[in-house]
């Protein structure tokens, strides 16, 4: 069971009336009564008036306001649209509007298409009470008020004189069969012969008291009126003679139903039922009181709904009288078993004995008549016409007018028996513990020849017309024992086999806890509850027309055998149509089964069932036409707490996270039997079974167009096309197509941008590596390689002059070469140190530059002037490193190549740039004439280093006037 079904079940339990389906006796036999009080949700206050609108809702006028009822839920009308006060009268007009008589300064209100209009003094109505409404043949609305008679002309109310003073109260308005308007006052009844004529007195008799008065017309056209003393009278040619034989009482309201019965509501004398009788006959009046099931002796309001139910408004609550389609018998105590014998007798086993119905005779057999015990547990008609009876104290056979107890061995242990089957001399018994026993010729025989499930877990035993015995086990296994003792076992998908029945064609029907099977020879077809079969099977009976009547867990269904066969072969119970009967139709409770026969057909063709409340007797020829399926309608739509009109094509707001759709099928007879299914095209792939639940909830619907469809069935398996609603959910801007296109384009651009940045980064890293390799190559070329080449020449020269040179001179030359090697080693170390300066990690840029300049000068007679301007601040590590290398290169060039005696270094800081200036007083050079072919890469290296950090290098020099190197890089 799903959460939705649990919620639906809880709702039904909360609103289900306290006395639903109870039979009313006495004056209301043939009807079931259902009562709603405050416990079932009925608002407090006496019910003064009732009306049913064209869409099926029942409207109640209470002392506390207006209430709408759909058979399950009481919904008070919005109090903000109606003035405070009691509702005294109601009228449902033919245009669908509801007219309301109020005890307020605005005495009349009209509700039409959900809109309320109030009428008061400005509309022609004085501050008075509207006691009654009436709509004539021409559609004109009339109101009888304490200030007289008023007619609505479409815009306002007009006063109409009824022949008395203007202040005469009119408490009843009606029209006779000839279209003549009648008006009742506290002093008599007046009639108008034509629209142009005035009113004339018809009967000058005080028939009314206070504000209670009612007209009604029978099938012959005769008029009847309520009476303060006599209950009701017939308006006969100006006379109001009392009805002979009628009880005395205060008549309040009269009603002629579609069967011709007249109902009389009285103020303290109960409800009277007057059957249709010839004009000259004396009616036989049946009086129903609280002893017969009424909630109160005072009945204030009467109404017959579209389905033929009679509704009563009483101080004790709201009551519904539903005419029986089947006959309940609750006077037999607790019924347990049924059986029909060939002589036409119907036997009923009860908790108080055995009841026999034969030829109009009813007799109860008890222990005094030889019955072994007081409680009958099982019945079985034997092949000779005898009746086997199992009681709590033993088993007996009724034959030839007497009971013969089954004689068992003294040591036999045979508990209470709940099922019996006979085949020749063999008797098969199933006890309370689901064990099987075999009795023959006064002995209990072992059943070892049967499989274990049929010995210890047997649910039913049955003998067909051929003498074969069938055993149904609790696990769905079915076994048949032929006349020679052979056994065949078959597995059925219907759960425990509770009931077996052989029809007139010899087809065996098996009812189980989970469905029903049809067995015809070797062909077996089944319908389970999972496939849509309506319930667990308790009993199966065939009527004289060949249709099956099946008692299930919720009621009684009538189905056609051929249709069951076709639906079972298709494996789809939705193809199965059936007629459903339950408590609202008069069924006394629900069908029950304890392994024995609980359904049988009597000799007169009526079908009897054991039900939880007694017996239920069905006359297949007089169950009436199937009730019409009420129209399905969508009541309300709520999207994120905002209500919408389901009749319009809703375009729900964007970001709708919660959509609630409420629907209903308006029937006032038995709304709990209605089952619903719905589907949201565009989201749901199949129908969703809502059960009795009347709402659908969806969350976080994607933006698109949808179509909501709901269908219903009234319990007969036929799904009636219901209501549909087309709507759409608007997308948020980020759910639109253009947004997706823009986002896709932006994502592509971002990927391309990231790719380009990655490529640029790789290229930059490669350029740095390449630049460093170039720098290293230049450094090695300019220092180490050239020095080593020169050293090689000196070594070669020394090798050729060593024999002729003196020792001191040679030694001097070797020392000089050693110093040269040390210098080259120092320069090589300097080149390696230039790869990554550790000085920047230990100090700031100005100090690192000063140390680099001092190191480059060494022991040479060169003066270093170092200056810092501005506020020093940290730059990016790569910027500081490149400035350090540029400064070092510039000082090296000034000392080694410019032969300077003074070198100036200046580092200047501002908000946007860092500026490095290196100047010397050396010999200078021509920057334009210095080419890479010379093998000197220092100037090019300085420019490349500046460009790597988005800076620039300016070199200003000329032969004979020194050199200025200026590097400017951005701070960030």
Q: What is the topological layout?
A:
Elements: H1 3-15, E1 22-23, E2 31-36, E3 47-52, E4 58-62, E5 65-69, E6 74-76, E7 87-92, E8 98-102, E9 108-112, E10 115-119, E11 130-135, E12 141-145, E13 148-152, E14 157-160, E15 172-175, E16 181-185, E17 188-192, E18 199-203, E19 215-217, E20 223-227, E21 231-235, E22 251-256, E23 262-266, E24 271-274, E25 286-288, E26 301-304, E27 310-314, E28 317-323, E29 327-329, E30 335-340, E31 346-350, E32 353-358, E33 361-365, E34 376-381, E35 387-391, E36 394-399, E37 402-405, E38 417-423, E39 426-431, E40 436-440, E41 443-445, H2 453-456, E42 458-463, E43 469-473, E44 477-481, E45 487-491, E46 497-502, E47 508-512, E48 515-520, E49 523-528, E50 537-542, E51 548-552, E52 555-559, H3 561-570, E53 578-581, E54 599-601, E55 607-611, E56 614-618, E57 632-639, E58 642-644, E59 651-652, E60 658-665, E61 675-681, E62 688-691, E63 695-699, E64 705-713, E65 720-729, H4 737-801, H5 807-833, H6 839-842, H7 845-857, E66 863-869, H8 877-896, E67 902-909, E68 913-920, H9 938-948, E69 952-957, E70 963-970
Parallel strand pairs: 59-65, 66-67
Antiparallel strand pairs: 1-2, 2-28, 3-4, 4-5, 5-6, 7-8, 8-9, 9-10, 11-12, 12-13, 13-14, 15-16, 16-17, 17-18, 19-20, 20-21, 22-23, 23-24, 24-25, 26-27, 27-28, 29-56, 30-31, 31-32, 32-33, 34-35, 35-36, 36-37, 38-39, 39-40, 40-41, 42-43, 43-44, 44-45, 46-47, 47-48, 48-49, 50-51, 51-52, 52-53, ...
Helix pairs in contact: 4-5, 4-9, 7-8, 8-9
